[in-house]
Every structure is written in structure tokens, then in C-alpha cells.
Amino acid sequence: MDMHDPAHPGELLAGWLQDLELTVTAAAAHLGVSRVMLSRILHGHAAITADMDVRLSQALGTSPGYWLRLQTQHDLWQAQQRAKARPVLQRLAA
Hints:
Blueprint: H1 9-19, H2 24-31, H3 35-42, H4 50-60, H5 66-83
Helix pairs in contact: 2-3
């Protein structure tokens, strides 16, 4: 089964913050991160880190690893698309 283009987790987080009626500034302050860092995540310019995953899981009540799994799915799909543009690597033989 082919995976579709999964959204960057920042897009999902942006919707979550909107539903909570939180500004980027207020959310960043609550999470203990800079507004710039949170904004970079929300706009897909930065990845969710393990530290951010823990912060988000505590603040939003999600399970630890939830945001990292979303990031991994997004990153893997992107890497698979880039791999299509280069020659297939042959398996290494022992």
C-alpha cells in the first residue's frame, strides 16, 4: 500500500492551537520555547524533536512519541520521493 503525502506535524499542531484559540506567542510561552522556534515548526520549516514531542505530549495530553511518529512519517515520505529521482541502489553483498 502506498502512503500518501502526510502533512507536516506543524500543520496539525497549527489546527490544534487554533481550536484552543491560542496564539503562537501564548503557546510558545506555555511550552517554554521561543516564538520563532514554534513558528518554524508550524510553517513546516523545522522538525519536531524528541524534546518538543515531550513538551507537546504534556501540554496537549497526547501520548509520548505521537508527534515524533508524525514527523517520521512525513520525513520518510519525503525521502522516498527524493529516492525516485536517483538510481536505485543495489543491495550490498557480504
